[in-house]
Write a structure and sequence with these properties.
The structure is a single chain. This protein is of the alpha/beta class. The chain has helices spanning about 1-10, 10-15, 40-50, 75-80, 100-115, 125-135, and strands spanning about 20-25, 30-35, 60-70, 90-95, 120-125. The protein is built from six helices and five strands; from the N terminus they run ααββαβαβαβα. The chain has a five-stranded mixed β-sheet, with helices on both faces. Helix 4 (about 75-80) crosses helix 5. It starts with a helix and ends in a 6-residue tail after the last helix.
């Protein structure tokens, strides 16, 4: 795995622990967090997505935190992140997290997002379940 090791040593990967790809055909922004992620990393991700010419605020979001550590994010930072972001209130947003702390922080984000009017934010432990939920139509829940 020398190529993987080279990537891990690259300073860019250490500075940006969240990557994303806009899939215009599927109308989904696929995001993946790895290593230690901070609230500032999430703010930077929001800025990058919003500036992307392929992005539409009505696209869905798939956020995979299964390879990340979120231990340094505070409740106030979760509130701030839930109160901002590039996605519309009607976007379907699925967050996948398999750690206890990360799942709890993601659930807090979900509840705060719902309180501000975001209609379709859900947290999952399983990627396939999250993707299936994202692909459901409005009428099927």
């Amino acid at each position: 795995m020398p190529a993987q090791a080279d990537k891990l040593e690259n300073p860019f990967f250490k500075l940006m622990p969240i990557s994303y790809e806009v899939d215009k055909e599927k109308r989904i922004v696929f995001c993946r967090a790895f290593d230690v992620c901070t609230a500032q990393d999430a703010v930077t991700l929001h800025e990058r997505i919003q500036a992307d010419p392929d992005f539409d605020p009505d696209f869905s979001q798939f956020m995979d935190f299964t390879a990340a550590t979120l231990g340094d994010i505070t409740a106030d930072e979760v509130r701030m992140l839930a109160g901002s972001g590039p996605f519309s209130p009607t976007s379907r947003r699925a967050f996948v997290n398999n750690s206890l702390l990360g799942f709890g922080l993601s659930r807090m984000f979900e509840l705060l997002s719902e309180a501000r009017g975001d209609l379709h934010v859900r947290v999952f432990r399983d990627r396939e379940e999250a993707l299936a939920w994202l692909h459901r139509t409005e009428s099927s829940g």
